[in-house]
């Protein structure tokens, strides 16, 4: 299995290990969200042949956007993104330095903002959160049928 380190933009570094896994680290700056979404798109399209307009690619891109947005907004520091192709789908894992666990709010159609976790939970087939020695790790599983 080969691995290489590639830059993904300002304040970011990424590694690809074979075809099944890729990871990137972001500084939490303004470009981190778009860089993470682009990284996920390259992983899906370039490494795994997904149609960029497919439902699975759209779900992964939106989940990555929401989780990295929350990491940048609430942890206010670096975050890491891991993507793994599994036999049944894609696992998206985001680590950030905040130990505060995410809280899904009750649906309120009139509320402006703070719907990110609701969106993630609606799109995924599995959601876990684990506290780490520093911060937390959120893993989301998306099935690809």
Description:
- Strand 2 (12-17) and strand 3 (21-26) form a beta hairpin.
- With 145 residues, the protein is an alpha+beta fold.
- It is built from three helices and seven strands.
- The protein has helices at residues 32-48, 55-75, 116-123, and strands at residues 3-6, 12-17, 21-26, 79-86, 89-96, 126-131, 136-143.
- The longest helix is centred in the middle third of the chain and has 21 residues, at 55-75.
Throw out a few tags for this protein.
seven-stranded antiparallel β-sheet; alpha+beta; disordered N terminus; 145 residues; 7 strands
Low-confidence stretches: 1-10
Global structural class:
alpha+beta
Widest sheet: strand ordering:
1-2-3-4-5-7-6
Number of strands: 7
Rounded to an integer in angstroms, the radius of gyration calculated over CA atoms is 15 Å
Cα shape: globular
Biggest sheet architecture: 7 strands, antiparallel
